[in-house]
Amino acid sequence: MSLELYKRYEIVFLRKNKYGAKFGINRIAKLVNCNRSTVVRWLKRWEETKDLSDRERKGRPRKTTTTDDEIVIGLIRQGVDEGLTSEKMQEQVQTEGINVNPRTIRRRLREAGFRYLKPLSKPLLSEHHQKKRLTWARSLMNYDWNQVMATDESVFRLYDIKGFYWQRPGERKICRKVKNTIKINAWCCLSAVGFGRIVCFKNNFNSTFLCNNIYHDGLLPAAREHFVRPDMRQGYFHNIDVSQWIESLKTSESIAQFVNVFQNDLCQLSEKLQQFVFLDIHGRIDLEKVKLYRSMVKKCFPHSKVDVKVSRFRLWI
């Protein structure tokens, strides 16, 4: 890039002017922050023409004008860029009557200081988390997962956030969106039998909504279909009051920790009791396991009244 005009005259003043310091070339280059050859070139130009302005260019003229460049850069500065590539930007500027190829667009963006960069990334799992998950997985290697039902939920948005943006170094790209985004939440459960029911909702999660709507309308019917014989399904779980689970849910540090059992296609056992539904027919579980389950409930939820009782068909959380 050519040296600014005022720096050119500064070089001449420090070297040639009678009121100047009469510095040497190396010192001037250090003060002006340029190469030594640059200082020599502008001093030579001053001796020849006494004019330090840019000469008329004789090469091929630029394909775009200053106004065209502002339109191209405006796609980025005005927040219109949603991860656009140079090919897509070419299609947009053609509507303004600017006929350039994608390579020219990339050159103009680089001249303005933009770079096509990846977003900031952070490791999803630390080494400590990986070791804990591996230890937990090995401890349950021989566990009977046919008696477990796991749940998870996801958010589906109409407008998703792209992954790449044209941005200047040191600047953070901000995507302007409406405050209340258009989205829908979906909850589902699964077991060894297969997938359960899908419950769609727009509410935010809280303990009351989770028990009265999600568990009542999705979890219990799916558990009845997956674990109870067809001739015995009528009547099971109809006398269960899911509202008694609300206080237990509130004791969790975070409702998100309680609900999100499976993260990244792997289930993770936290220090608190996770959202598991254990169902078993009487006779398959011995008394030692019943004592173990009862102690887990008391440790995780000391203020809860939920207890494990031996019956023909048991359900506990």
Structure description:
The protein is built from eleven helices and nine strands. It is an alpha+beta fold. It has three domains: 5-49; 66-117; 127-161 and 178-316, no CATH class. The strands form three sheets. It has a five-stranded antiparallel beta sheet with strand order 5-4-2-8-9, with helices on one face. Strand 6 and strand 7 (266-267) form a beta hairpin. The protein is elongated and about 105 Å long.
Question: What is shown here, in short?
Answer:
The protein has 317 residues and is α+β, with helices and mostly antiparallel strands.
Helices and strands in order:
Blueprint lengths: L4 H11 L9 H8 L3 H14 L16 H12 L8 H9 L7 H10 L3 E3 L9 H13 L8 E10 L7 E3 L15 E8 L4 E7 L5 H21 L18 H5 L4 H5 L2 E2 L2 E2 L9 E5 L5 H14 L12 E4 L1
Antiparallel strand pairs: 1-3, 2-4, 2-8, 4-5, 6-7, 8-9
Helix pairs in contact: 1-2, 1-3, 2-3, 5-6
